[in-house]
Amino acid sequence: MSFDWSKRGADKRIRLFHSIPEEWKLRTYYRRESNVFNIPTECGKLSAEELSITNSTASDLVEKLSRGELKAVDVTVAFCKRTTVAHQLVRCFHEFFPEKAIAQAKELDEYFEIHQKPIGPLHGLPISINDQFRIEGQEASMGRIAWLGKYDTTESTLITLLRKAGAVLYTKTSVCQTLLSGETCNNIIAVTSNPRNNAWSAGGSSGGGRCFDRTPRFSTWGGSVRVPAAFNFLYGIKPSQGRTPHSKMANSVEGQETAHSIIGPIAHTAADLRLFLKAVLSQEPWNYDPKVIPLPWRSSEEDIARSKVAGRLTLGYFYSDGVVNPYPPILRGIDEAVAKLRENGHTLIPWRPYKHAYAQRFVRIMYTADGNTGILNSLKASGELVIPYNKRLLRSTKGHLNANQLGEVQLKQWEYQRKYLERWRRFEEETGTELDAIIAPVAATAAIRHGKFRYYGYSSVISLLDFTSAVAEYDPEVYDGAPVGLQVIGRRLSEERILVIAEEIGRLLGNSQTP
Amino acid sequence: MSFDWSKRGADKRIRLFHSIPEEWKLRTYYRRESNVFNIPTECGKLSAEELSITNSTASDLVEKLSRGELKAVDVTVAFCKRTTVAHQLVRCFHEFFPEKAIAQAKELDEYFEIHQKPIGPLHGLPISINDQFRIEGQEASMGRIAWLGKYDTTESTLITLLRKAGAVLYTKTSVCQTLLSGETCNNIIAVTSNPRNNAWSAGGSSGGGRCFDRTPRFSTWGGSVRVPAAFNFLYGIKPSQGRTPHSKMANSVEGQETAHSIIGPIAHTAADLRLFLKAVLSQEPWNYDPKVIPLPWRSSEEDIARSKVAGRLTLGYFYSDGVVNPYPPILRGIDEAVAKLRENGHTLIPWRPYKHAYAQRFVRIMYTADGNTGILNSLKASGELVIPYNKRLLRSTKGHLNANQLGEVQLKQWEYQRKYLERWRRFEEETGTELDAIIAPVAATAAIRHGKFRYYGYSSVISLLDFTSAVAEYDPEVYDGAPVGLQVIGRRLSEERILVIAEEIGRLLGNSQTP
C-alpha cells in the first residue's frame, strides 16, 4: 500500500505516453544537459508546413484562420504533434487529448464552411492551459496522486469562454505538486525541464505552459506566469485581480480571499498577449464569474500609452529589492533596458522599493494561513512523498490561522498596499509627472538548475500589491543562453497600458520578433 | 466600576449636548409618538434663508456655491443649526464640531474670493458622515463606550477626498452599537428616532445619517444605506465593492474579506447621489485606496440607461424572497411601481428569487466568522450592556472559524454568486433582451417601532451578491405616513445605470421632488 502512490504516478505517466500516437513517438534518447530546443524542427516528425504553422505568432494564425487561409484541423494537428515532441523531451503535459481537439477543430472548419466567417476572435487557435483548469472527461490532478482518476464533469469558466471565442483545447500542461513553487516538479512527470538545457528548470508553478511553439497559454498566481515566461524567453502578463475569470478551477487553497489566484497568459509576443486578453474580455466574463470586474478592453488606455511611448514615458526602475540581490546578468538586463529607454528620450528615475522584506512576511503567512492543511491533506490522501523542493515550504507553516488572525493579516496587507500607492503618488507629486511603470527583475537569477529556485520575492510582492505586471525579455545570450526576464509593473488594472510599454521595451531590446 | 460604562456614556451624551451653542437649544419638550418632522421649520431657530438653504437639494446648493451666489459659511451655519435641532429631537449625532466646520467654510470662501472659482465639485457643501469615519481630533466611538476618549490622529480616505472636493465636514452621525443592525441604538444616545414618529426607528446601522435636510450622507454595508433611506423617504445607493474608498475607517470586524464594508450615500434625490459619486470618483480614489477599482464615472453607461428609459426597459420584479413575506404596504408599493412602469411602455417580468434562505445562512456565518469576538471584546472592554436588540444577534454566533472553514464559506458564496449570475443570463437568453434591473422590497416592513426590526434578508442577500442597489420611494401616506422603500437592483458595478433607473421610478411614483 505504501508504494501504491508511486504505481499510480507511474500508471499516469504511462497513460500519458500512450496518449501519443505511435507515429509521433521519438526514437532517439536525449541526455540531460543537452539543449533540445531545436529537436522539434530537426526530428522529422513535423512537415515544413506544420513547422511554419507552429512557428507563427498566434496573431498571424488567427488572421489566416479567420480568412479561411488555414484550416483549424491542420493547425490543430500541427500543434498536437509539436506538443508531443516537446513532452517527450521535457515532460510538459498532464493531459493530452488530440482526438477531442481534432473533433472540435472539424466543427470549427464546418462552421467556417457554412458561414464563411470565424466563430469568434480565436477561431481555430490551439491554446494550452495548465492542469488547474477543468475540462469535462479529463483529470485535473494538478500533479497530485490522490486526484488522479477523477474525471471532471464540469468545465472551468475560462474554458467555456475560450471555446466560445473559437479556441481549440488539446492539452493541459504540467504544474508543481503544491502550485506554490517557482519550478515544476511532481510525482507523475518528475520535472519539466527547460528546452534550452535539460538540467535547468522551466520555471513554475506552471512550467509546462511554455516552450517550443508560439500559442498563448494560461497560467496562474504569484510568479506562475512571470517566472516561466522569464525562464523561457517569453512574454507573460499577470493581470490584476478581477480582470480574468478563475471560477470553477482546481486550486491549492480553495475559497481563500487572502492571496488571490490570478490567471494570465504567456506568449511569444506582447501582441499575442493582447489578442488573448481582448478575446477573453470580448466574451464578457463578468457575466459568468462574479469576481470579474465589468471592464472591457480599453483602447483609450492603449492610445494614451502609445502616445507616451512615442513621446516620453516616465519610468521607475530598481535593481534589487533590498532583500536578495540579483545575479549580474539580471543587473545587466536592467542596465541595458534603462540605457535603451533613455537613448529613446524617456525619463528613468530610480525607484526605492518599499519594505519588500516586510511584505514577504505576509506572503508567507498568506500562503500558509490554513497551516497547509489543504495541500498536506491532498498529499496524505495518497501517501505520496512531498517532493524535496516543497519540504522547506511546507515546514515553514505557522499553523492554522483563525478568522481574527486572518483579518489582522489582511488588514496589514491593505495598509501595505495603501502605503505603496502613497509612495507612487508622492513620486508623481515630486517629479510632476505620471509614473507610467516600474522596471524590475522577475527573479534574482536567470533560468536555473532543477531544485535551485529559492527566492520568490520579486514576483510575490508585486502579486501582494495586486499590481499589473508584464514580463519582457533581455538577450538570452549573455548568460550561457539562459533567458533573463524583466518585469514591467503598473498600478492595479493597468493591463492595456502595461502591455504597450512592455512591447516597447521588448522592441528596444531587439526581442519583438525573437522565437 | 461596573456602572462606570454608564457614566462614560452619560458623560459623552452631556458633552454632545454642550457642543450645541446655547442660542440653538430648544426649550420645548417633544413627547414620544409625536411627529417632529416640521419642528425645524417651526421652532424659530432658523431664518427664512437658512430654511431655504437647508431645504435645497445638494445639486442646487453646489451650483449656487460654485457661482458665488451663496457663501460656504452661510450654508454651513444653516446646516449646523438644523442638525442641532434634529439632534435635540431624535438624537442623531455622535460628534458635532461647528467651529471646525465654519473655519473650513471660511477658507473655502477665501479661496473663492481669490480664484473666483470653486475648489472642487462639492465646494462649500456640508456633508454628514457616520461615526465610522475618522477625522483628526474627533472620537470615532461607533457607539461603543470603550472607544470613547480616543481622539483620532488620522483621517479616513473618503474624508480626505471629500475635503479635496470642497465638502465641509461638521458632524458624525449615530450608528448602532454593533453596526450589524437595522436600527440605531447604543449606550450613548439610546436610540435615533424617526422624525415622522418618535416611536419609530430611523433605521440602521447608520440611522443618524438621515432626516431633516437635503445634504448627502455616507453610510456603509448591508442594509445600512438602504434601510435608513427606506425608513426616511430618501434615496440611497449601495455601490458594489471597490467603487468607493473605505480605507482608514473604524469597523466592526476589521480586515475581514468575507463580507465587505461598502460606503454609499443617502440623499433626497437621485441627482444628489450622482453628484456625490461623481465628485468622489473625480478625486481618483483608486490612487489612495488600493481596494478601489480605477473606474471613473461612465457617462456612456448613463446614456445607455437614459435611452432605455426613453424607449423600453426590461425589468424583473419580486414581491417576496420566499422567506419572509412583506407587509401589504410594501406589496402595494411594488404593485404601483410595476403598474406605472408598464403604463410607460416598459417590460416587467416576474423574477424568481434564487435560494435567498440559503444565502442568508452565509450572511449569518460571514457576519459572525470571528465568533463576534471583535464586537464582544470591544463591549467587554468597558463592561457595557449589550443592547437588547443585539443580544439575539450575538447569541447566534457559531464560534470562531479557522482559515479552512472560512475558505469553504467563501467558496460557497462565490458559487452562489455565480449561479445567480447564471440565472440572470438565462433570463436574458429566454427573453432575448438585457435585464436592466430587478425591483424588490428593501425590507419586509415600512419604518417600524424601535426594537422591532427583525429581518435583514431583503438587503443582506443583495449585499452578498455584491449587486448595485439603489433605493427609490413609494408614497409614504399609504401606511400611516411611514415611508416605504423599493430597491432597484443591478448587476455588479452598475451604479451609473441603476441611478438612472431609480430616478425614473421615483419620477413615475411622483417622488422626485418630495422633501
TrEMBL record, chains A, B:
Keywords for the protein's UniProt record, in alphabetical order: Hydrolase
Entry keyword annotation includes Hydrolase: yes
InterPro entries recorded: Amidase_dom (IPR023631), AS_sf (IPR036928)
GO molecular function: hydrolase activity
Keyword check for Nucleotidyltransferase: no
Top-rank taxon, per record: Eukaryota
Amidase domain segment(s): 74-499
Family in the record: Belongs to the amidase family.
Protein name, as recorded: Amidase domain-containing protein
Upper lineage: Eukaryota, Fungi, Dikarya, Ascomycota, Pezizomycotina
